[in-house]
UniProtKB/TrEMBL annotation:
Pfam families: RRM_1
Native organism: Gorilla gorilla gorilla (Western lowland gorilla)
Name assigned to this protein: TIA1 cytotoxic granule associated RNA binding protein like 1
Matching CDD domains: RRM1_TIAR
Keyword hit for Electron transport: no
Annotated GO MF terms: RNA binding
Length: 132
């Protein structure tokens, strides 16, 4: 998602709130592209994602609607985040810092020293980058 294209997350909704009501309220700020209501059959409150055509309207909605009461409940409005299932899996990535190296040690020396332990994605040495 690009920042301006990301929908607004609207949470802590009353179970009586509908997509139609959310669209009526948020459309007063600016034209809405879509609203997707998520109602899980658990004890969690419903929430929804509201998408605007224009970034300025989305930003205005965040400022105007966060903390407002809709049907008696104070709603939370924020930028929507990418679901964790779509994020790159970094569970097998490890970061190692090696300090106090002699100036004659090169990035290639560091990469060679750590090569037996697995694939190295990036090695940094004094501002030098080596992609692997």
């Amino acid at each position: 998602f690009q920042h301006f294209g990301r929908p607004r997350y609207v949470g802590n909704l009353s179970r009586d709130v509908t997509e139609v009501l959310i669209l009526q309220l948020f459309s007063q700020i600016g034209p809405c592209k879509s609203c997707k209501m998520i109602t899980e059959h658990t004890s969690n409150d419903p929430y929804c994602f509201v998408e605007f055509y224009e970034h300025r309207d989305a930003a205005a909605a965040l400022a105007a609607m966060n903390g407002r009461k809709i049907l008696g409940k104070e709603v939370k409005v924020n930028w929507a985040t990418t679901p964790s299932s779509q994020k790159k899996d970094t569970s097998n990535h490890f970061h190692v810092f090696v300090g106090d190296l002699s100036p004659e040690i090169t990035t290639e020396d560091i990469k060679s020293a750590f090569a037996p332990f697995g694939k190295i994605s990036i090695a940094h040495k004094n501002g030098q980058d080596l992609e692997g």
